[in-house]
Write a structure and sequence with these properties.
There is one protein chain. The protein is mostly helical. It has one domain. 77% of the residues lie in helices and 0% in strands. The protein contains twelve helices and no strands. Helix 7 packs parallel to helix 9.
Length: 281
């Protein structure tokens, strides 16, 4: 892992984690192209590539926490207050509870897919198919948005469960987490901006959990000494800054425009990945 790789991957993670185009799919695309044109491994042997991916996700996690700090503080206070009073009538307390419930359903779906998802990292042409599918999900979400005239900004239990399941399915590389959760929310009657805000907040428990438990359960701690931590720090910083700016301007974009442009992009990118890595790589 070197600094140039860290900067490129950090930028890609920061932009694609929140744009509905699949950050995991684009990390696979970038890594695979690098390996193809240089005949080199994108990261060193062992677990470095996986741990670096976690570091990049922590960078985007910090971006979410900073951008939504007021919301996070408010709903956290409301949740603990509701737990003490045993009264979840407060809207913010309900939202916190729905995020936790959605996370539980995400884990139930994502955990059985863990091995499949890890194997797909080495099959970029298959990942391309899933990016293409993401485009279809986005397009259908916008089609539903145009059909549904009555929209709401309130999440209920049913919506939380279904969006949580959608987030779990997005553990498959190429399926956009933000794209699938936002589109699912639109199908269920939420407006686009509310879907995006809930989607970003819903990502917090999963990223935190993966960042803490994956290194403990899966990585030999002795390998940490061999990592290029300067490159890790640079990648973290780039993913944080680009992620924060992406959230800021993506929410403004959703307030005025549809996500069909991202659907078209996913169709092109997915088709390219499938054809290139299936027939030329």
């Amino acid at each position: 892992m070197n600094l140039v790789q860290a900067i490129i991957m950090g930028l890609i993670q920061g932009l694609t984690e929140f744009l509905p185009v699949s950050s995991s799919g684009h990390l696979v695309l970038t890594s695979s192209l690098y390996k193809f044109f240089t005949n080199k491994e994108f990261a060193s042997a062992g677990s470095e590539e996986v741990v670096f991916d976690i570091v990049l996700h922590v960078g985007t996690l910090l971006a979410v926490c900073l951008f939504f700090k007021d919301d996070i503080i408010r709903i956290t206070k409301a949740f603990f207050s509701a737990c003490i009073k045993r009264d979840f009538a407060n809207t913010d307390a309900k939202l916190a509870a729905f995020i936790l419930i959605g996370t539980v359903f995400t884990v139930f779906v994502a955990f059985p897919l863990k091995v499949v998802s890890e194997n797909l990292i080495n099959l970029p042409y298959i990942v391309g198919i899933f990016i293409f599918i993401t485009g279809c999900i986005l397009y259908l979400g916008e089609w539903a948005s145009e059909k549904k005239k009555a929209k709401t900004d309130k999440v209920d239990l049913k919506t939380a469960i279904i969006i949580g399941i959608a987030q779990g399915l997005a553990s498959i590389p190429g399926i956009s987490r933000s794209g699938s959760t936002i589109s699912t929310g639109i199908f269920l009657g939420l407006d686009r901006v509310s879907c995006a805000r809930y989607s970003f907040l819903l990502s917090l428990p999963i990223i935190i959990g993966a960042s803490i438990f994956y290194p403990i359960l899966e990585v030999d701690m002795h390998e940490f000494l061999n990592y290029n931590w300067i490159a890790f720090a640079v990648g973290f910083l780039v993913s944080f800054v680009s992620g924060y700016l992406c959230i800021k301007y993506f929410l403004k974009f959703l307030g005025k425009h549809s996500m069909k442009v991202f659907a078209y992009y996913c169709w092109i990118a997915g088709a390219f990945m499938f054809v290139f890595f299936k027939f030329f790589a």
